[in-house]
Amino acid sequence: MQNKAKPVKKRIVMSGMRPTGPLHLGHWEGALQSWLKLQAECDCYFSIADWHALTTEYADPSAIREHVRQVLLDWLAVGIDPEKSVVFRQSAIKEIPELFLLFAMIAPLGRLERVPTFKEQKTQLSDRDLNTFGFLGYPLLQTIDIIVVGGNTVPVGEDQVFHIELAREMVRRFNQFYGDVFEEPMELLTPQSRLPGLDGRKMSKSYGNVINLSDSAETVKKKILPMKTDVRRQRRSDPGIPQDCPVFAFHKSFSSASEIAEVDAGCRSAAIGCIDCKRILIANLNRFLEPVRERRAWFEKVNVDDLLAPGNLRARERAGRTLEVVRKQVKI
Ligand code: SF4
């Protein structure tokens, strides 16, 4: 008897970002680059998670709307295409809070309290009171973001895998109570960003060490030229070790193989100076960012709500179908 091949499940990709300001090269390396590949191969949903921003910015949400705009412009500028992917604003999907409420009924409190990022973030953001139900529930809200649109594949960095495990547990719990409604989502590990910040620490807006995707050519130059280099290169004639220099880490992401080899050898032998090395990097970064800036400038002329409207509608239709099934199964 011939073995029937198992039907291959279609990958529905779901990911999102909290709108906390303009995006930087760390976002490009850690997420957007992978999203572009996925966009070409799968059905993708990309959410600008403004309710998530509210979990930490609830006391002063005045900047969130503008941040939504900035994130959208950055996405479009790097090539996220609303004709190929469903690009939407989380708060436009009113089915999300309904499903969140239903899951809140079954989510064990202790399980949410054990999410490592819950404690970490409370310590990091000690300037505000995060002893709130909303903040405790934000990993559950992430679960809902994924499953409400039928997402089964979630591109994440290693530090987010715990959240996808939680999503699977919550889905299993729901399915046990109310029948087989949801598919358990799986993480798709994205390559770790190798890019440090300008000061060698992790690239982060809060450290003020970023290059934004929207930075002008002049700003890029002003940020790169004073960058710290390998401490061994006190004088032009001192050889250095490129692996100990954040400038070299940037070269590895934005320069050609031959330039990387040239910089590597030139640094070790002191054949090139740090300023020459940085000038090569500035040119390459600006070559990469120029088309991004051009596309951004074009989209800046368009109303953000108009850009998001088709994606909001498609996400809402999909979420509506999910909720129809859910209401039937929960009998409410
Ligand atoms: S030559 Fe380049 S890689 Fe070497 S220390 Fe200077 S800036 Fe860094």
Architecture overview:
With 332 residues, this protein is mainly α. The chain has two domains: 12-195 and 303-330, Rossmann fold (3-Layer(aba) Sandwich), CATH 3.40.50.620; 215-295, Tyrosyl-Transfer RNA Synthetase, CATH 1.10.240.10. 55% of the residues lie in helices and 7% in strands. The longest helix has 27 residues, at 274-300. It is elongated. It binds iron/sulfur cluster. Iron/sulfur cluster binds at residues 229-230, 233, 240, 242, 245, 247-248, 263, 267, 272, 274, 277-278.
In short:
With 332 residues, the protein is mostly helical. Helix content is 55%, strand content 7%.
CATH topology of the largest domain: Rossmann fold
| Rg, Å, rounded | 22 Å
The low-confidence runs, each spanning 5 or more residues with pLDDT under 50, are: none
Shape: elongated
- Helical run tally: 14
The CATH superfamily label of the largest domain reads HUPs
Major beta sheet, specifics?
A: 3 strands, parallel
What would the average pLDDT be, to the nearest integer?
Answer: 93
Distance between the termini: 46 Å
Just give the CATH class of the largest domain. Alpha Beta
Percent in strands: 5-15%
Bound molecules: iron/sulfur cluster
Q: Helical proportion?
A: 55-70%
CATH architecture term of the largest domain: 3-Layer(aba) Sandwich
* SSE class: mainly alpha
H/E element sequence? EHEHHEHHHHHEHEHHHHH
Number of domains: 2
Order of strands in the sheet with most strands: 1-2-3
